[in-house]
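Let us work through a complete example step by step.
Step 1: write down the sequence.
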Amino acid sequence: MLRFAVRGSRAGVDRLAVALYVRNDNRHTRLVKLIATCGALDMDDPQPAITVMLPEES
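Step 2: predict the structure and record it as tokens.
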């Protein structure tokens, strides 16, 4: 789902909100909101990396 959100985003955006429904127990689904960021992997290793996290994480 993140791939489709990235392809549909504007150029130059480094933070993207994604929401999807997750079913953990075959009975109830719940909406989960995630944030994906793209940036350097580390200060010492500038390779690009995508990090997926909950909105309250930073």
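Step 3: interpret the result. The helical segments are 2-7.
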